[in-house]
Amino acid sequence: MKKLFAILSMAGFMCFSTINQVYAQDEKAATEETAVAVASNETFHQIIKQKFIEGGPEFMGIVLISLILGLAICIERIIYLNMATTNTNKLLSNIESALSSGGIEAAKEVCRNTRGPVASIFYQGLDRSHEGIEMVEKSVVSYGSVQMGLLEKGVSWISLFIALAPMLGFMGTVIGMISAFDAIEAAGDISPSLVAGGIKVALLTTVFGLVVAMILQIFYNYIIAKVDGIVNDMENASISLVDLLVKHELTNKK
């Protein structure tokens, strides 16, 4: 009887111990799941901010400045180019009507009241119309080059930031790797925890530099495409203007 009681007691104790171990494991798993859930609830902005801080202020700050300056120039160029876009067909129609009704002065007034480089080129061509068709063409070509320079103003700075951002990231990578090897040399041992910090900083600077370059590259391509479209409109409209002047026989006439 005593032996049976001892066996039952021992069995009960083992069961109780097993239950406590299972409960402890379940509690640990629940804690880990809660930590993962809390981490997953972090917003994208918080994650980016945390990674930016972990990357170090030296190179990450310069990369951020490149992004801010590049975006500022991109936004300014996009606004300028959208304001410079003109409905050339409508402008040509208005100029033709003005030439038929009021002559050169009426057409010049239409150009003065129209915004954009195409209208400015038209005004220069109309202003030289009394000097002959060749002078009109030279004036249009010369002033077209001036307007093209205004359209492309600041674009070279965007390309500079596109090249500079990844180079800064790569420089941060190299410096981070050097720091990791310095830590290995100082400790005299290779440990994952010893070099993980330096390598992490190195990779973060590279990632942020490449992201900045990709963002600016998208805006740069859009701006270049927009400039090319406006330049093509300028060239086509200039040819149409010369044809209008010849049609109305207004060259060599004041």
Outline the structure in words.
With 254 residues, the protein is mainly alpha-helical. It folds into two domains: 2-41; 46-254, no CATH class. The protein is built from nine helices and no strands. The protein has helices at 2-40, 44-54, 57-84, 88-101, 103-112, 117-127, 133-151, 155-187, 192-247. It is rod-shaped and about 90 Å long.
Question: Which features characterize this protein?
Answer:
rod-shaped; 9 helices; disordered N terminus; 87% helix; 254 residues; mainly alpha; single chain
Write the layout of secondary structure elements.
Elements: H1 2-40, H2 44-54, H3 57-84, H4 88-101, H5 103-112, H6 117-127, H7 133-151, H8 155-187, H9 192-247
